[in-house]
Q: What sequence folds into this?
């Protein structure tokens, strides 16, 4: 009888710890890639067709979710906002288009297991390249975490023969 009471008491005592452990698992996200990259980047933007016309530019990077950011560029040459997915690549964070813009650029959809807004489970650059891209598909920039810099090429839809290169450092 004492043995059964001891087992029952032990089970009753341990049950609350199981709920706490499960709750902790649900709330933690080990792949929050936005922490190191969100902020304001000051630098310059240079048109590919006239490199002497480089001008000051600012890009604000804000969090959309754990693995997606909004890019808001402000300059006299170009003023635009769009979203990018983030991917871990050793000491840098690489970027790629999200849903519709991905299709417009590459002519195919992101796979089912790779959705925007944090639903995917592997945000490594190599996994992204193998699973989501075909050989030769180009990417346009990324963040160098050790140097706090961001480099990105923007190709406006209405000017397909020109791209604008942004180079900036985080404030």
A:
């Amino acid at each position: 009888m004492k043995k059964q009471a001891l087992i029952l008491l032990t089970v009753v005592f341990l049950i609350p710890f199981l709920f706490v452990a499960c709750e902790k698992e649900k709330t933690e996200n080990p792949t929050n890639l936005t922490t190191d990259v969100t902020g304001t980047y000051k630098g310059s933007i240079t048109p590919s067709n006239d490199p002497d016309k480089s001008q000051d530019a600012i890009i604000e990077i804000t969090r959309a979710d754990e693995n997606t950011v909004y890019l808001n560029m402000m300059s006299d040459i170009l003023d635009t906002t769009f979203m990018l997915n983030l991917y871990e690549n050793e000491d840098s964070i690489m970027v790629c288009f999200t849903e519709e813009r991905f299709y417009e650029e590459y002519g195919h959809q992101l796979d089912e297991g790779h959705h925007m807004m944090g639903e995917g489970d592997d945000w490594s650059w190599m996994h992204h390249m193998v699973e989501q891209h075909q050989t030769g598909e180009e990417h346009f920039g990324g963040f160098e975490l050790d140097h706090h810099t961001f480099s990105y090429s923007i190709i406006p839809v209405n000017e397909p023969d020109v791209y604008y290169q942004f180079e900036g450092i985080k404030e």
